[in-house]
TrEMBL record:
Swiss-Prot/TrEMBL keywords: Monooxygenase, Oxidoreductase
Designated name of the protein: Antibiotic biosynthesis monooxygenase
InterPro entries: ABM_dom (IPR007138), Dimeric_a/b-barrel (IPR011008)
One Pfam family matching this protein: ABM
GO molecular function: monooxygenase activity
Residues in ABM domain copies: 2-72
């Protein structure tokens, strides 16, 4: 498993426009077997910053499976207007440092 972070600094578009683009693009991510999860976050301190987090089966499967597969063209068409506003797009390997509070506690 790998986690891809795509960080945007919006200068030409609004947060609502990027969110709407990913509402359309999410169908392509959901259809791709390489995609395990995703979420889009909006920075509370700086409204121009947004981060998309995608959990992939692996970096290799993302790059050779999804990027070269049938779902990528539709996904790319949805988010293409925002590519120039990407300031980071990298894959991260999880570490052993993790914790989640039990909601029932």
């Amino acid at each position: 498993m790998t986690i891809e972070y795509i960080r945007y600094r919006l200068a030409e578009h609004t947060a609502a426009e990027l969110t709407n683009a990913y509402v359309k693009a999410e169908a392509f991510l959901k259809a791709a077997p390489q995609c395990l999860a995703f979420d889009l976050s909006h920075c509370e301190e700086d409204p121009a910053l947004m981060t998309l987090r995608i959990v992939w089966t692996s970096t290799q499967e993302h790059l050779t499976g999804f990027r070269k597969g049938e779902h990528f063209p539709g996904f790319l068409a949805c988010i293409r207007p925002f590519i120039a506003e990407i300031v980071e797009m990298n894959h991260y390997a999880p570490t052993t440092v993790a914790w989640v509070r039990d909601a029932d506690a």
